[in-house]
Amino acid sequence: MTATPSSPKYSSTQILSKGSKIRRRGERFNRPLTLILTLCTLTVLIPLLVTVFMAFKTASQAVEAQAFAPPAPMSIEGFLEAWRLTNFPVTFATSLFVSAIAVAGAVLISSMAAYAIHANWERKFFRFAFFYVLAAMFLPFPVLALSQIKLSGIVGLDNPLGVGILHVMFALGFNVMLLTTFLRNLPGELEEAARMDGASTWQTFWQVIFPVLAPMSATVGIFAFLFSWNDFMMPSMIISDPAQQTLPVVQQLFQSQFSSNYHVSFASYLMAMTPSILVYILTQRWVLSGVTQGAVKS
Amino acid sequence: MTTTEQSANAPRPETLTPAKTQPRKQRRLGKHPDGTHWLFLAPTLLVFTLCIVLPALMGIFFSFTNSVGYGEWEFVGLSNYALMFTDPAILSSFGFTLGFAAITVIVTNIVAFLLAVGLSAKIRARVALRTIFVIPMVVSPIVIAFVFKFLFAKTVPAAAGALGIGPLEETILANPDLAWLSIVIVTAWQAIPGTMLIYIAGLVAIPDDIYEAASIDGIGPWRQMWLITIPLMAGYILINVVLTFKNFLNAYDIIKGLTDGGPGTSTRSVAMTIFRGFTDGDYAYQMATATIFFIITLAIALLQLRLTRPRKR
Predict the structure, then answer these.
(1) Distance between CA B132 and CA A48 in Å, rounded?
(2) Among candidates B227, B204, B232, which has minimal Cα distance to B313?
(3) Complex-level ipTM beyond the 0.85 threshold
(4) Which residues between 237 and 296 in chain B have a beta carbon less than 8 angstroms from any beta carbon of chain A?
(5) Rounded CA gap, B281 and B285, in Å?
């Protein structure tokens, strides 16, 4: 390592290093592999392309259900109708609200809990707390659903706020597990150094632990957003007022009525998908580098 | 390691070098947890208990009653459980869910691991490819299920008709023996990227010097895969298998969107059976189902954890 200072940028290329020939500067690209992977992307792209095609069709084109025929002429009538039918602005705001709670909870609450558990691992109570939240990873929502519906109704949380809180709590076990594993792999000296500089627990957390956790928090946060934004099961069971439903839940509308108005349903699907795809595209550089490269500093 | 002086916000475990190294201070951290540690944990545990543990205990409690979800109830002992084990609807939904979950876990993890290794190798357009492969993760399961439902119901039969592939001319969604395949396909399609990202994160965490040393020792890439990558990835494989299995056992959204449990009840998952019980007023009875479901979930999870423990780093 002293001889060839490793550039973290290339670290991921070494995972299946092709012997000594392909390495660092003189490296060659693996063309067959590139080609295979490119072909594989079709499995991802085709359903999305079909969605876009169908969404921009006119009613008369859509009825033919020709998935791969591009829309000619293009039409946005499907979008206008879907916007109206799903009461899009309100539904969108509801989904956003639930997701915001889920992300804030995942990033802050999980990392605080993970740090407390990690720092006090010798203490029985904290070890117990770890397995307590971990065991609940295996408590499926269906097991809890009706009791949760009853309880949330009693305390007035049978609404988007309640769903947000549930999203945080259901993800807690997994997030704490990921974060404590990450903390455990850090050298203890890091925290010890902060301690010896006289930092309190609060300061140590915010100035040392939280920044160090950043790449893991990014993963946790983005997974929280995606899960929350896209969840159908919990909002559909917990939120009692149909006017307060989230975007995925209102898509059911198109299964019963308008079943042959494919341009309307696909326009609505596209509007439900686009925000999460956009968020992903906008944050992906940061997220993927956080997930896959860990230490690359910008 | 000597050349990599990195600051505290460069969280690459193997390259982290502490700002100061003072080995004489051996005091274990956390020996004196202060109020902040409790503040970080206690409120969360309280809300967690109210949101997750209390409903679980309520569910188990009511499974021994004849409650319909509201009003009067009385204890009926184990009769809900006794009834359950002779109820073909419940047994078949358990069978379907376990079989579907097992198959989908295998498919998802193999494909995700291969993609992760492929995307981590020296390829062109890595970033673009990775971007595309992750997209399924960010799409709502129910929405993509509706899209695939259209494809399975309209596009695949039309294409099969044009190509003269007789068996596929009828949509597999209407075939009680094949409908489950559509669910495996869409569930795996959706679950692969998240699983893959965790694998990629694990692959990157493996220090380069191990591979360099192996190469110097004349160990080829495939043996490196078996001797280095897979053993070092055991923890990630465990996390992914447990996580995907747990998720698939609770399959609901995608099945709801694709087949709604049909045709007949051939693809009705346990979650669906439980929810239908709710609408039918069988609260206590379905809480018994839920309790058994929980025990199965937990047993499998503990078994998996136990089996994989010796290989843990």
Answers:
(1) 11
(2) B232
(3) no
(4) 239, 243, 246, 249-250, 252-253, 256, 270-271, 274-275, 278, 283, 286-287, 290-291, 293-294
(5) 9
Which pLDDT value is given to residue A83?
94
In A136-259, which residue ranges form alpha helices assigned H by DSSP? Answer: 141-154, 160-184, 188-196, 201-204, 210-230, 233-238, 247-250, 253-256
Residue B65, helix vs strand vs coil: strand
Residue A22 C-alpha, separation from nearest chain B C-alpha, in angstroms? 8
Q: Which residues pair with B65 in a beta bridge?
A: B75
pLDDT of residue B9: 39
**Top-confidence residue, B235 or B253:** B253
Cα A226 to Cα A222: distance, rounded to the nearest angstrom = 6
Instruction: Name the pTM for this structure.
Output: 0.80
Residues across chain B: 313
B75 three-class SS: strand
Q: Are A6 and B208 in contact (CB under 8 A)?
A: yes
Cβ under 8 Å to A: B residues 16-45: 16, 18-22, 25, 28-31, 33-34, 36-38, 40-41, 44-45
Work out the mean pLDDT of chain B and round it to a whole number.
Answer: 82
The C-alpha of A114 sits at a distance from chain B's nearest C-alpha, in angstroms, of 8
Complete domains list, chain B, with CATH: 86-311 (1.10.3720.10)
Question: What is the C-alpha to C-alpha distance for residues A50 and A68, in angstroms, rounded to an integer?
Answer: 6
Q: What pLDDT does A26 receive?
A: 47
CB spacing of B150 vs A50 below 8 angstroms: yes
pLDDT at res. A128: 92
CB-CB contact of A155 with A238 (8 Å): no
Q: List B residues 136-155 in contact with A (Cβ-Cβ < 8 A).
A: 136-144, 146-148, 150-151, 154-155
Domains of chain A are 93-245+274-292 (1.10.3720.10)
Q: Label residues A51-67 b or e (16+ Cβ within 10 Å = b).
A: bebbbbbbeebbeebbb
